Automatic annotation (TrEMBL):
<keyword id="KW-0223">Dioxygenase</keyword>
<feature type="domain" description="FAD-binding FR-type">
    <location>
        <begin position="7"/>
        <end position="110"/>
    </location>
</feature>
<keyword id="KW-0479">Metal-binding</keyword>
<dbReference type="InterPro" id="IPR050415">
    <property type="entry name" value="MRET"/>
</dbReference>
<keyword id="KW-0001">2Fe-2S</keyword>
<keyword id="KW-0411">Iron-sulfur</keyword>
<dbReference type="InterPro" id="IPR017938">
    <property type="entry name" value="Riboflavin_synthase-like_b-brl"/>
</dbReference>
<protein>
    <submittedName>
        <fullName>Phthalate 4,5-dioxygenase</fullName>
    </submittedName>
</protein>
<keyword id="KW-0560">Oxidoreductase</keyword>
<dbReference type="InterPro" id="IPR017927">
    <property type="entry name" value="FAD-bd_FR_type"/>
</dbReference>
<keyword id="KW-0408">Iron</keyword>
<keyword id="KW-0285">Flavoprotein</keyword>
<dbReference type="GO" id="GO:0046872">
    <property type="term" value="F:metal ion binding"/>
</dbReference>
<dbReference type="GO" id="GO:0051537">
    <property type="term" value="F:2 iron, 2 sulfur cluster binding"/>
</dbReference>
<dbReference type="GO" id="GO:0051213">
    <property type="term" value="F:dioxygenase activity"/>
</dbReference>
Length: 130
């Protein structure tokens, strides 16, 4: 089955939602007809139109398998005093239709000789030869 490519701003339906922690909610989005969505590379994100009275869009990283997905998963930080998506998306119920952009990535992964694991501290890096 080939992926039906949603145009920028296509309507996807919230098909699942759960709290991953007290401050993070995962939201699963799918096409209303259940068709396969476009694949995406690691590090890609989608824009979601927020319906908080301002008609703004926010970007959210995609999580989960990116090859021929039937749904997209995003994680949203819950902030009671937040603006836009962090205030509005955590309350969106299953069944809600949202305008969601096509997956985009700001960088493309490239093959290396090893895997580099890093933390926020620049001197705390570990390189593994595979």
């Amino acid at each position: 089955m080939s992926a039906a490519r949603p145009e920028r701003g296509s309507a996807l339906t919230v098909v699942g939602a759960r709290m991953l922690s007290p401050t993070v909610r995962q939201i699963d989005l799918a096409r209303p007809d259940g068709a396969v969505l476009p694949s995406y590379a690691p590090g890609s994100h989608v824009t979601v139109e927020c319906r908080d009275g301002r008609r703004s869009t926010n970007s959210y990283s995609l999580t989960g398998p990116g090859r021929a997905p039937t749904s997209y998963s995003i994680s949203v930080r819950v902030e009671c005093g937040g603006r836009g998506g962090s205030r509005w998306l955590p309350r969106v119920p299953v069944g809600t239709r949202l305008r969601v952009g096509t997956p985009r990535g700001e960088f493309a992964p490239f093959p290396t000789r090893g895997v580099i694991c890093s933390s926020r501290a620049a001197d705390d890096r570990l390189e593994l030869d595979l």
